[in-house]
Design brief:
By secondary structure, the protein is mostly helical. The protein has 24 helices and 14 strands. The protein has helices spanning 10-15, 87-105, 118-142, 149-154, 156-163, 168-182, 186-189, 211-230, 232-240, 251-256, 267-273, 289-311, 315-319, 373-390, 434-443, 464-477, 483-489, 495-502, 529-551, 559-571, 575-590, 611-614, 631-645, 653-679; strands at residues 2-5, 24-27, 40-43, 49-52, 57-59, 72-74, 326-328, 347-354, 362-369, 514-516, 521-523, 597-598, 602-604, 627-629. A three-stranded antiparallel β-sheet has the order 7-8-9. A three-stranded antiparallel β-sheet has the order 12-13-14. It has a two-stranded antiparallel sheet with strand order 1-2. Strand 3 and strand 4 form a beta hairpin. Helix 8 crosses helix 12 and helix 19 (529-551) packs antiparallel against helix 21. The longest helix is centred in the last third of the chain and has 27 residues, at 653-679. It is globular, with a radius of gyration of 29 Å.
């Protein structure tokens, strides 16, 4: 009997429209689990194989969701030129390849959504490589024969010897590897693992930015972005000049290269031509094209911090933003003038993607005040210039397009600027005071903040994630961002993560707003940017419900879904009634009477926390009073679960549980179809 196994990246491949890779057919009658040497583990968008089982290098870049991922696995790490002729080395390499293959094809429910990231797979490769090198270096000391990977992972004494050579971090990585391998059927692994667990070393949470400094950054970044915005079109025109590698070089340099009859304009000439001589002064002074690239990168990183500050996006989420990223929030009614008191006037959605919600890049919108438009338009202006040099439509490019093409002959159209540890020039000299340091200590009583970077007199070292943590922290401190609103705004998977970000907010005095002596409450000016976040989340929810009620004509299942269908029928064709219902719906959401959250089967209009949702019990939706179930989503889940069943042994617990859940969905699906037929 043969069983079919898909790669853990199967769903990622489907959702990103990448070419399919090999499916593994396992013959249960054989003990050999390894595929043939031509087996393809990864392909790029062109369909070219980048990771083939028998090769000495596997490249998983096409499936990497993080720019920091270690996606190239080089198996020739013994520094032995005759590695392929050395049977001992080759045996260990085969063991590592087999182990990685098992993680890729035989790890059940890998990670949150059935996948583990390339970054995590890279971590597993690194620890396997470390074990291999240890085995190679100690085999003559510990054993008369060769020590293999399986020897160390299955022999307690050998494993203890290896563990004693590791740092705390590597011990944790070893523990993670063993935990993954424990979940693979022992008959596939071929040996029994030693039990070992090491918790992840305590790592310190990203610090908040002291509020005095945090507040300063708003005015500093805004002032700088406003300055960039006034010359953005000039920057586009300047960048477009560099179509020839000699453009911008000094005349003397061109003479040395024999370009006497074909002089290209010098950089100083171009700066004057495009009226940028007043801009390129002081911190932005230019010596040559390389310093021009440095200045352009500084403009990009300044705008990047500006986006972090207002959206709470993670680093990779900002870097994934494409050129076309703005979605104006609009209720799209024919009679907007009647909704002027409710319509948002200063909100936009910044469209990017995140891997945190699904395990693969999923397009998501981040609510932001319209103020960040200028920062995005500056970045678009730079990208337009680079697109001209690449001879590529600018609308197809990343927003943070790599500017190094100005000095390089070639550039990848999808290449993003390398910011490294670069900090915007405008934020470099903000010095920590005694009060700032005391606020840090108050924000986290478990830390002493003894590191040099937190001492009085030091310049504050900004990191992009600090803006995310600070927005969560100060928003909670002023009672402006609730747990549920924060979870939506920050794209957190659950409220527990939201609490972690907000941790310690009640340990310091409130810093946003003022105390109303009559009510005893902290209040903010009506134009404060934090209020925009609080109101905006509600407006987004209202928009979801209004789309559901008045725009989506698909049949809905579930108790709340049936109610919505009846509402649609009552409102059909009555414009006055529809407008009135829209106003009423939005008001109810803003006042907290109505709520809407997307679910695996459709949506949920429950106004309180759902225990079943938090525990992942999605089949509970079919009996819930507040569930809105979309037939197409239900069909997708049913098909996915039917596919899952083929991977499990019919006698296993996984099979029995999945079959039970699947049966519930199919019974529900059948009943709803029968009801529809009856109504017709």
């Amino acid at each position: 009997m043969k069983s079919t196994y898909q790669s853990i990246y199967y769903q990622f491949i489907i959702n990103n429209n990448l070419p399919k890779i090999d499916t593994y057919l396992f013959n249960n009658s054989t003990k050999n689990i390894m595929p043939n040497d031509n087996f393809v583990l990864c392909r790029n968008q062109k369909g070219e194989a980048t990771a083939i089982y028998g090769k000495m290098t596997w490249n998983f870049k096409p499936y990497a969701t993080s720019k920091n991922a270690s996606y190239i696995f080089n198996f020739n790490f013994f520094n032995d030129s005759a590695v392929l002729e050395n049977s001992e080395n080759l045996s260990i390499i085969h063991d590592i390849k087999k182990t990685l293959f098992l993680l890729l094809y035989f790890l059940p429910d890998a990670g949150r959504t059935g996948t583990i990231s390339v970054k995590i797979l890279g971590n597993r490769f690194q620890i396997l490589k470390s074990i291999a090198l240890y085995a190679k270096n100690t085999q003559n000391k510990l054993s008369q024969g060769n020590i293999t990977l399986r020897d160390i992972l299955s022999n307690e004494m050998l494993l203890i010897g290896y563990i004693n050579t590791l740092s705390e971090h590597k011990k944790s990585e070893l523990s993670n590897l063993l935990e993954n391998l424990q979940r693979i059927d022992p008959k596939h692994l071929g040996y029994k693992l030693v039990q070992y667990h090491k918790a992840r070393p305590d790592s310190q949470q990203t610090s908040i930015i002291p509020f005095r400094i945090y507040l300063q950054t708003f005015s500093i970044l805004k002032e700088e972005v406003d300055r960039f915005w006034t010359i953005k079109d000039n920057l586009t025109r300047l960048i477009k000049e560099f179509t020839n590698k000699d453009v911008g070089n000094k005349k003397i340099t061109q003479e040395k290269q024999g370009k006497i009859n074909h002089f290209q304009p010098e950089l100083t000439t171009l700066i004057i031509k495009h009226k940028l001589n007043d801009f390129f002064k002081g911190d932005y002074s230019l010596k040559d094209k390389r310093t021009l690239i440095t200045v352009l990168i500084n403009i990009q990183i300044t705008c990047k911090y500006y986006i972090h500050q207002y959206t709470a996006m993670r680093d990779n989420e900002v870097l994934q933003i494409r050129y076309q990223c703005i979605n104006k929030i609009d209720l799209n009614t024919k009679k907007k003038e009647q909704l002027n008191d409710l319509l948002p006037k200063r909100f936009i959605n910044v469209i990017s993607s995140t891997t945190k919600l699904a395990g693969y890049h999923q397009k998501v919108g981040w609510l932001a005040p319209e103020a960040i438009n200028k920062g995005i338009e500056v970045l678009q202006a730079i990208t337009k210039g680079i697109a001209f040099l690449l001879n590529t439509p600018f609308k197809d490019l990343p927003l943070f397009q790599n500017v190094s093409i100005i000095t390089r002959a070639k550039n990848n159209a999808e290449e993003i600027s390398n910011f490294g540890k670069h900090i915007p020039v405008c934020l470099k000299n903000i010095v920590i005071t005694k009060a700032d340091r005391q606020e840090l200590i108050n924000s986290d009583p478990n830390r002493t903040f003894d590191e040099l970077e937190f001492q009085v007199g030091q310049s504050w070292k900004f990191k992009s994630h600090q803006f995310r943590r600070s927005l969560a922290f100060f928003g909670a401190n002023s009672n402006l961002i609730s747990e549920s609103t924060g979870a939506v705004l920050f794209k957190h998977l659950n409220n527990e993560m939201q609490r972690y970000y907000r941790k310690g907010f009640n340990k310091i005095i409130s810093v946003l707003g003022y105390l109303n002596k009559e009510t005893g409450e902290i209040e903010l000016p009506k134009d404060h940017f934090m209020i925009e976040f609080q109101t905006g989340i509600s407006i987004e929810q209202a928009k979801e419900i209004i789309n559901l009620l008045f725009k989506d004509n698909d049949i809905l299942y579930g108790k709340k879904g049936s109610y919505i269908d009846r509402q649609r029928a009552d409102l059909k064709g009555d414009e006055t009634k529809i407008l009135k219902e829209k106003i009423s719906t939005q008001r109810k959401v803003l006042q907290g009477e109505l709520s809407y959250k997307k679910t695996l089967l459709g949506g949920c209009m429950k106004n309180s926390r759902c225990t079943d949702y938090m525990l992942g019990n999605f089949t509970a939706c079919i009996d819930c009073e507040d569930a809105v179930i979309e037939p197409n989503k239900l069909n997708h889940v049913v098909k996915t679960m039917e596919s899952e069943l083929t991977k499990y042994d019919a006698e296993s617990g996984e099979y029995q549980f999945t079959k039970s859940e699947l049966d519930k969905l199919i019974i529900f699906q059948t009943k709803e179809k029968v009801k529809l037929d009856y109504d017709k």
